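Methods — Computational structure assignment.
A single polypeptide chain was analysed. Its primary sequence is given first, followed by the predicted tertiary structure written as structure tokens.
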Amino acid sequence: MNPFITTGYLSPEYFCNRVKETKRLKTAIENNSNVTLLSIRRIGKTGLIKHVYHSLQKRNLHLIYIDIAHTNSLMDFISLFSNSILKKFQSKPERFFKELGSLLKNLRPLMKFDSKTGEPEVSVTFEHTKDAQNSLESIFDYLKNQSKKNKICIAIDEFQQVVKYPETNMEALLRSYVQDSANISFVFSGSKNSMMQNIFFNAKRPFYQSTEPMFLEKIDNDSYFKFIKDKFNKEGFSITDETIKSILNWTCTHTYYVQYFCYKLFTSSKSKVVIDDFYRICDSILEENDSIYLGYKNILSDSQWNLLRAIAKQGSVEKPTSIDFIKKYSLVGASSVNYLIKKLLEDDMIYEEKGIYYIYDVFFFRWLEKL
């Protein structure tokens, strides 16, 4: 089996480091503290949550995880939330549907079985927002009743999505239920840092100072170096130190890109992995993404494209509106660059960390770098 997992969570054996973060999140959950987990995309937030959940499996805790990235309204949220909760507490379909009917009595639930898994599920519709709010209240009442027996932790991933709902009071509504849930802890995770920080750190917003902030940084090089070497060695491969260092440098130690690179390297290498194998995988990754990245050029404006290429050539940029940076790469004026930066941030083409701007997709960065 390939030990480098690129999607989901398998077990602690395939999870790299995060010892301090694991301990901190675990302690917060055990002590009923609510946490806001922030990081850039593909750095390992979901993996950390599931790793902590795995470590708490034998405790008297009910652990629920939902990803609301693809929800677009309160109705979508209620459907996903109620399904996840009842699947956790009700194993028999008839019991599931009975409890569901009670929880969503103010709505019109459509109950069915998933054609692939055979599990019961529901979608809901409502005519009046008040009906949906009453059902959400019923769901939290149900949770509070369940939490009398055992503590509950609910992780809501991509939480910033609630800002996009047409229901403008969604944050205030959820905040009122969360603060009234004594034996239930929440982990609010999100990859849109600016939106998440505005939700939780803006004094004018309902969730202000209601959670413990936790910023997830990149895994340190030494830990990742050891992880990669151990995984190759355990499977009967030898890998040179030079190769591992080159992998971490080329992928900027960004979790997803490290994992994907090592996954391809492991799959296609012989018993001894050397620097030539590293270069081979670099070429392979850039070639397989070539048509995608060329397609970006057709989607982006010339000014956006030129700015991205300039950032890639530089590696990163702290002052994109500086005269030196603009002149060096023949960019448009400072005010235009400022507008372009905001637009690229909105579109997740770049991200800002500690005042420095980087290209989000590390492979795209390496592809642009070679132009």
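Note: The chain has three domains: 18-215, 221-288, 290-369.
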